Amino acid sequence: MRKRITWLACATLLCALLIALPAAQTALASSTDVAKIGDTTYASLQDAVKAVPTSGTKPTTITLLRDAAGNGVVVENGQCITFDLADHTYDIDGTTVGSSGTETNGFQLQKGSAVTFKNGTITSDKAKILIQNYSNLTLENVVLDGRNLDDARPYTLSLNNGNVNITGNTSILAKANGGVAFDLYYWPKNGYSGGVQVTVNTTGTISGPIELSQDGTGADEAAKHNKLTIQNINHEGTISNYNVGTYDNSIVKIKGGTFAYAPTKYTGDTVVSTGGDYYVGKQANDVLNANGVITAINANGFKSWGNNTAAYPSATDPKDRWWAVRRFFDWDGNNFIQTYFQKVDKPGNKRLIQSIVDSQNIIGNGYVARDYCAGYRVEFRSDENPVTNLLAGHLTVHTYLAPYIPAEYIENIREYDVDALESAIGGE
Length: 428
What we know:
Shape: elongated
């Protein structure tokens, strides 16, 4: 009897292990899986997307595990997803997606969804539109590479609806000779009456045209709903006015960036050109300052922008280059003249010389004590006062002064302190 009970116990335990085994395997990533949500991995990016609820208020992060290729991806209404490409590339080389009869997209992001792509590259040589967007979309430190799209006039990013933020170091690359980097298409006839509002603030490159168009409802209506605000950009292309007429000025506002064309009509700021590219906003100010021109910027109130005098870049001596240093030198020189003009025509003896040197050193020590400059001293040097000069009544004193150089750049290097974490919560 004891032997039979033991055998039954072993059989029961074995069954329990067999039942539990598949669940354990789901936690193990297959070598062919391409994406994960938390600890769960998926064989395809679309499989991972299907696992995201359509009623989420907080974003679900889908992380790409490696460089991968696969079919197009549809994000449905109500889904809230962050695609962390993790410095990998996703290549749509299989079946493309889209609305019935127009399945030509690499990604279709439906209205009512919220999507972020970050930290990687998306490309395809099968799609005609790399990303077709109707969602609220953020592109952060991502490259949309549409240079090999399969069409004579492909769109790397097609925007028909939603709020779109292009930020970080994002680049959008169009196919040469016909491709469009991205468009703003007003499409109320298909149910997208809210239009599309785009903010571009990227240090990356937008290569190819930015197209403005509408479905025939009217350019005036398009201008009410479609907006493109460019805060920073490197645009190697043009703004293409497809059919919005004179209303393009109401759609596009440029506040900063570098352009291959003169964007004068879209900005109220000064446009600066060095004979090649055109610069607006801070970029224009930086170009001017690099050539010795000081401007002003409005950053919580107007302030001087730039520190270089017109002598720069030909002259790099601090007293000639820096406006603040030049100003201090000029002021100190004028003050010296005003203070010691009364000494002119006095007997040029040691007492006169010493009184000037001592008096000016006291003044200079005051400057240093109040941190106006790093150092200040006055000397009467014999090598600068040869007997020929003394016989001519010419006395020379030498002032060594060091006004502080303006802080043109302030860099903050940040690093996670593992030792601090270990010290705070590490075990014995």
